[in-house]
Structures are given as C-alpha cells and as structure tokens.
TrEMBL record:
Chain intervals for the UniProt region annotation (Disordered): 1-25, 41-61
Biased segments, Basic residues type: 1-13
InterPro entries: YbcO
Gene3D superfamilies: prophage-derive protein ybcO
Protein name, entry field: Nuclease domain-containing protein
Length: 170
C-alpha cells in the first residue's frame, strides 16, 4: 500500500551518463557518397584516407533468369529438388565484393533451391570450407549453363547471360 498517491507529470528521468571513449585502434567507418573514410587513431599522425567502394553490379534480368531453373548446389540431404523455389544465391566471399551489409555482385551467384540457399547462408552445420567447395563446384556448372544461354537462349536471357560472362572474365 502506498503512503501517498501517485502524482501526474513526474515521469522517470534518464540519468546522464558520461560519453563513452573509443579504443585508440578502433577504425571508424563513415560512408561519404561512394567513398568510405577510415579513421585510424595513430599516435604519430591522425590522418583520414579515402577507401573507394566498388559499386554493386546488378542485373534484374539475370536474377530473374533463375526462376524455374534446376538447383546447382545440390547439397545431399538438403536439396528439395523443387525448381519453383530456385533463386540466385550470391557468393559469401570477400573477393566477390561481399562485405558487412553488402551483397556480392549478381554475376557471382548460382541457382539454388530454397533448402540449399538456406544451407549456404544461414545453416550452422556446414563448415566454411564445405560451403566454399560446394559453391565453387556450382559456380563452374553455372558458368557452363550461362555460356549455353548466351549462345542460344531467348534474346533477353541471352543479353543478361552475355552481361554476366563479360564480368566473369569470359
């Protein structure tokens, strides 16, 4: 039981905390247009150097081509074989421009069903090496499929396939 009734307008006030200090070697990344600026707390010189960002190479038609295609990852025990769930699964490799909060280029992807795409991106059971091996094998098959489409596919698909081959280095 309260000794006196509650009063209106006397809400909780947040205590003022002192500002946090950053560690000396903690890089702060700020995005400035298409240039990321890295600040390094060096003892001798506190300089700011621009690091250019590589813009993501996208092609909506190339991504849409995956619909109805066979899964290329084919993870045993995971692949559902349902071609209606096939999408373009992007690479998780830094060499393909993958980064924190950044998806890899569209040409660095393979066709994967829902189960295999989940296995590649979110499943905790496979090791990094297993994922890399499976993705590399699928990428070889993907390149073969794209070369076939570039040679004799529908005009819009052919154009998207040629776009991807030019960026894959072929």
């Amino acid at each position: 039981m309260r000794s006196k009734p509650l009063q209106r307008g006397k809400g909780f006030k947040r205590p003022q905390l002192p500002p946090r200090e950053r560690p000396k070697l903690f890089p702060v990344k700020q995005s400035v247009g298409q240039v990321a600026v890295m600040r390094r707390a060096d003892e001798a010189a506190n300089e700011v150097r621009p690091v250019p960002k590589q813009p993501r190479e996208e092609n909506p038609r190339y991504r849409a081509m995956a619909a109805g295609k066979p899964c290329l990852l084919r993870v045993p025990g995971v692949c559902n074989g349902d071609w209606s769930t096939t999408v373009l699964a992007h690479s998780n490799s830094l060499s393909d421009n993958k980064g924190k909060g950044m998806k890899a280029h569209d040409h660095a992807g393979v066709w994967a069903c829902f189960g295999c795409h989940f296995w590649l991106d979110q499943d905790k059971t496979p090791t990094r090496e297993e994922r890399r091996e499976r993705f590399s094998a699928a990428m070889v098959e993907m390149r073969r499929q794209i070369e076939v489409i570039a040679a004799s596919g529908r005009p819009r698909d052919r154009e998207a396939a040629q776009w991807a081959l030019a960026r894959m280095g072929g």
